[in-house]
Records
---
Amino acid sequence: MKEDALWYEAAQVVGVANALNVVADAFGAGTPGLPALDPAAASGEARALFDDVRAFYHSAEVPLPFRLMAHDPAYAIDVWEAVRRAFGDNRLSRRLKEALAFAVSLTSRSPFGTVFHLGEMRRLGVGERGVMEVLGVTQMFSSYTKIADTLQLEPDMGDIAPADPSPAPGGHASPSRPALNARQVSGTSRAKISKGERRVASRASRISASPAPAPVSRRAAKKPV
C-alpha cells in the first residue's frame, strides 16, 4: 500500500485535528473545575512542553488544547507528539495539512479549530484566494454528503479497484485469503446489493408470494326473468 501512504497521512491529520477541537470546544478557557493552565505558572514538564509548542507554531501563545491538557503533563506530551508527527512536513506539506484541518474544523463546526487552522494557513502563506478555494471545496462536498445521506445512497465505487493485500506503510503483511468460489462470490455479491435494490426485491417477493386474485368472468351477466 505504498501508494496509499498519502491517505494514511491525511487520515492522521483528520483524527488529530478532531482530537484537539473536541478538547478546546468542550471546555473553553474558563470552564469551572478545569481552567486552562497559565503558561506563566507552568513548571517542569509543562513548561518544556509549552516551549516546544511555541517553537513549532512560531508563536508566543500556547494553543488552548495544550493548556487544558497540561494539567496532566504526561498525557499532554503524548498528544503533542502525535500532533507534531501528524502535522510535520512529510509526503504532504504542512501547509496542505493545515488546509485539511481547516476543512475538518469547518465541517465539524468547531469554533476553535476553524479560527486556529485558518490562522496557521495564513501564517504559512495561504492567501485570501487560497482560503476561499478551500472554503468552496469544503462547502460543496459537505452539501453533496448531506444530500447523499438524506437519500440514503451507498457508495458504488467499491469494486472499481481490486483489493490490495499489501500492508499499510510501516505495518505488517496480512495473511492471504483463499480465492472465493462461484457460490461464495454469488453470496458476496448478494450482500452488496444496495438498500434500494433490497427494498425492490423484498416487495417483489411479497407480491409473488401473495395468492393470485380469482379470474374475472368476461361473460355478460344474465338478466333476471
Note: Residues 5-27 form the longest helix (23 residues).
---
Amino acid sequence: MNRYRVFPIIVMAALIMLPALVTAQDGPMPLTWVGMDKVKPGMGMQYPALFAKYNKPMLDKMVADGIATSWGVGYELAGPGGFNYIVWITMPGWAGMGAVEAAFDARYEGLSEEEQESMMSEWMEVVETGDEQYELLRHTVINGNPDAKFKYLRLSNYTAKPGYGSDVTKMYKSFVEPVYEQLLKDGAIAGYGLIEQAIHSDSTFTHEAWITFGELADLEKVEKAFMEQEVSDGDEVARDLAFSKMFDSDAHYDRLIRVIMQND
C-alpha cells in the first residue's frame, strides 16, 4: 500500500480541487494536491474519523505554521464517480509543496514500525486499495474569503482544444470572474477559481473551474447572476462562438462535493 496513505485521502477539485481559499496574492500561484479514494461500503463514517485521528492535527499545524494555506475533506454528492471521498491541501507554490511533503515524511519516519503497521491496517480496512487517484493542480485564478466556512464545493471540468489553453484563462477573467467577484462581495459564495494541471495525470480535463458556498440554495443566486449579466447581443454571440471553438463540449462534466472537514 502507498506510504502516502498518511497523506491521502482530490477530486476536482477538483478542485477540486481542489480548492482552498486564499486571497489574491503576488508571487507564485498556489498549488493544490488532491487525493481521491474509494471507501468500502458501510465505511463512510470511519473514513473521516481516521482522517481526524491521523492527518487533521498535522494539517492544522501546517496551516498555523504557513506551510499550507488550507485543506479540506469531502464526499461526492453528484458527479461521474470513480471515487467517493476527496482530500485537498493547498500550498504556496512548489516550495510549499516541498515543505508539505517533507513534513509528512518526517512524521512517517518518526513512527515506530508497530505504529506504521497499525495505521496502515486501519486505512486498509476502510479504503479500497489500488483505486487511489492523485492530482497536483495549479491555480491560474483564485480568490476567496479566508474566514468563510463552506459546506459545498462545485467543480466544473473542461477540455480545451489544442492551441487554446492560454485563451481559457483570458475568457474566464473577462466573462466569469467579474460575476464571481460580485457574488463573493455579496457573501453568496466563499471563493472561486480556475485550475490547470501542474502535473498532467488526468486526461479527462485541461481546466477546472470551482466555487465554494454555504448552502445549496446559493447556487440559485449564482445562476441568477449569470442570467442577469449585462452582455451585448454581439458580445454574447462572440462568447458562444469562442466557447465552441475553444472547448470539446462533449468532454465537460461537473462534480458536487459535500465538505465535511476543513482547517480551522
Note: The beta strands are 14-15, 31-37, 70-78, 85-91, 133-144, 152-158, 191-199, 207-213, 253-262.
---
Amino acid sequence: MGASGAAFDVTIDLEGFDPLAATPRDPDTITLAARAAGVRLDDVPPPYDEDLRALVGSRIREAIDEKVPPLIRGAVGPPEYGLIVGYTDEDRYLVRTFFDKSDKPSEIGWPDFVDADHGGPVFLDRAAPPERTVQAREGLDAAIARAAGSEGALTGWAAALRDDARWADTKHAGTAAFADHAMRVVLADKRRAAARFLRGLRSLFSTPGGDLLRAAESYGYVVEALEKIGTKPFDASVAMRFLDAGHRRGIAKALEAVLGHEKEAHDALGAARAAIRQR
C-alpha cells in the first residue's frame, strides 16, 4: 500500500457517502501496487464464449496451483477486489471477499462471471520488482501527489457530518452510519500501512530519516484519533449513536484533529523528498 500511494490517500464520496469510494481501486494505484509486488496485471473481463471459458478456467487453476491466485472483482456483492483461492472438480471456484457470508470461502460458477465489475478475473504474472530505492521514491511521490486531495476530502467529510439537515431522514441513518464507520476503518488501515512503509524507508535513506520518522509518527496519531472515534466491528449501537447530532459533531471535531496530523505528515514528507533529491 505504501509503494502504490494508497496508504497515504483519503478518498470520500461526499455526495452519496459510498464506503467503496474509500478503497483503492483506480487503475494507477493498482498498477503501482502490482509493480511494487513484482507482478504484472492481466485483466481478462467476461463475458466468455465456450472456448474462452475453457482457457480462462485452465489459467485460473494453473495460477492457483502455482500459488499466485488471481484477483476477482465483484464476485460476491459490490465491485470490490477479492481472490480466487481454489476450485472444485465441478468447474466451480472458491473466492475470498470482504462480503463472504461465513468464515468459509464463497463458491461461484460461470454464471457469476458477468462483466468486468461482476466476476472479472485479473491475473498476476510474475515480473522483476523495481529496485527498493526506486520503489521508495515512487511511493513518496505518490503520497505527496495525494496530499491536497486528502486534506480536501477530510475537510468535506467533517463538514458533511456537521450538516444536521442532511441526516434528518432517520430511515437512512443505518446506511450513513455504516458508511462513516467503514471509511474510518479503511483510513485507519491505510495510515498503519503508511507508518510501516515510512519506518522501513529509514534503512534506505539516512539523510531524511528524521523527517520520515516525523511523518510516520503523525500517521500514528491519525490512527489513534480514529480508534478513539471507533474502528471496532459495526453494530446497531454505532448506528444509534450516529443519529445524535452531538455525536456527529464530535466525530467531525475528531476528523479536524486528524486533518492537523495529516498536514504535519505532509510537511514532513515534502521535506524528506527534498532531501532525497539533493543526494
Note: Strands lie at 39-43, 71-73, 81-87, 93-96, 106-108, 120-126.
